[in-house]
Amino acid sequence: MQNKITVNDLNAWFGAKQVLHDIDIGIEKNAITAIIGPSGCGKSTFIRCLNRMHEVVPGAKVSGKVLVDEMDIYDSDIDPVDIRRSIGMVFQKPNPFPTMSIRDNVVAGLRLNGVKDKNVLDKTAEESLRKAALWEEVKNDLHKSGMSLSGGQQQRLCIARALAVEPEVILFDEPCSALDPISTSKIEDLMLELKEKYTLIIVTHNMQQAARVSDRTAFFLYGKLIEFGETDQIFKKPEEKSTEDYIIGRFG
Amino acid sequence: MVREVYHKDLHKLREEIVSMGSAVSKAIGDSVLSLKNRDVEMAQKVIEMDNEIDAMDRNIEADCMRLLALQQPMARDLRLIISVLKMSIDLERMGDLALEISVITKITASVLPIKPLVDIPRMSDICQDMLKNIMIAFENKDVEAAKAVARRDDEIDMLFDQVRRELISYMIEDPKKITGAQHLTFVARYLERIGDHITNLSENVVFMVTGERLELN
After folding, report:
1. Would the ipTM clear 0.95, i.e. be above it?
2. Cα nearest neighbour of A212 on chain B
3. Predicted structure pTM score
4. Contacts of B78 in chain A (CB under 8 A)
């Protein structure tokens, strides 16, 4: 299996507080990797280090290497904006731009990049909404506000927005925690379709979700990577006792 | 500790399978004792006890199903539930075999035995001992103890072969003893099957602890 992302000796801090310790991990291409662990274990910080979002927090610091296809995204000549374009992110709470229409939400990134051609924008909007499995539901309401959609639709709109700038990797930070079970199933089905073309990483508190959608699972605890392996093995017979204690709910 | 109700339920499941093991052990012991003593009353009690064993099996199945549906168990909890579910099936079958032995007691009690029973009670003793030890191995999550129990199935198989050959010689010598000898052959065969079911229990204890399915004996 080919790795899309290789992380070597990654450490991260908020001010003086170290939140990630010596993380080494390989993220497989065209697969879904789940990151699990209790609150405060560093899993969100970890994925935010993968597209240089961690450093936007005042006082935050990172050391180590994050190679995406052999290129170190922390090299001094790399523009973080380029990285964030190729490594998209979907957040916990759907966050469509409130004053924009559905269509404009999807192509907001392209416009920021200077694309003005209406045909290109329309075509990209349709393609991205189709990929995000939202097109059929919104094709007659493209001019309506993104906020007029349900929570699950808004989250798929955000996924369409992430897809529009043609990323290679998509990071999902608890994408379903604000959604009902049906919307959650739709997002999960969508993730399984998207992995054909993209490399996906999902942070989730929902163990069943990690078990259902991911190919590989990483367990984080106190800022350290405790165990990483095939999802099937992690949930049936983990190697580490702390992994087992966490997934069967004997923590706390 | 979190999920307290869930953990209490898992604990209850462990207790249920252990008490089912004790009930089955008593059924095996009493069935062979009733045969030896030509005690029809005791045989009848074993037959009635089978209803209780069947009910225990159904309860365990219902509890496993509820835990699977409501708690989404994983890792060692999942392996415990799968093991208990499979163990209860073997124990239920063993209860049925004890019942079959008791039915033979009822059929043969009124006629004189063709021979004194020695090896058949010995088989029963070994089965009960194996069953007791596998339940201890289950409670202690002890893989080596579980494997040691499975190895003793060889003793049962050897005794079965010995009993069978001895009974064939009785039948050759005196055709009038064929019916009685055949009944006893069946009893020995049922005990041999019980030994195989206990080996399955051992395999499930190993699976519960290690996650590996080993073919023991």
Report:
1. no
2. B72
3. 0.82
4. 235-236
